[in-house]
């Protein structure tokens, strides 16, 4: 019984030492008291603002073309990669929307997921 009691004390003491040692460690990059204002949230906010601005430019470019119904088209932009979703009435507009989107400054590539809207009778 004495050996079991001593073993429990040793294991308990080691657990306490390990937890105290692990608890006392700090990391400089995660220290909020020394924030420089530059970090993941700042960069993410800037990127989000740039993506929103690009989307506005794309919708404005499509709105200039009266033959394109931009109301049935949705656009997402992330780091210059633009994804276009929605429907258009004919195949000619598929290519036209893609060329309009590519012509906007800041667009790196276009993922065209547009489909041709079929009449209900078909």
Automatic annotation (TrEMBL):
<feature type="region of interest" description="Disordered">
    <location>
        <begin position="23"/>
        <end position="46"/>
    </location>
</feature>
<dbReference type="Pfam" id="PF04972">
    <property type="entry name" value="BON"/>
</dbReference>
<feature type="domain" description="BON">
    <location>
        <begin position="50"/>
        <end position="118"/>
    </location>
</feature>
<dbReference type="InterPro" id="IPR014004">
    <property type="entry name" value="Transpt-assoc_nodulatn_dom_bac"/>
</dbReference>
<protein>
    <recommendedName>
        <fullName>BON domain-containing protein</fullName>
    </recommendedName>
</protein>
<dbReference type="InterPro" id="IPR007055">
    <property type="entry name" value="BON_dom"/>
</dbReference>
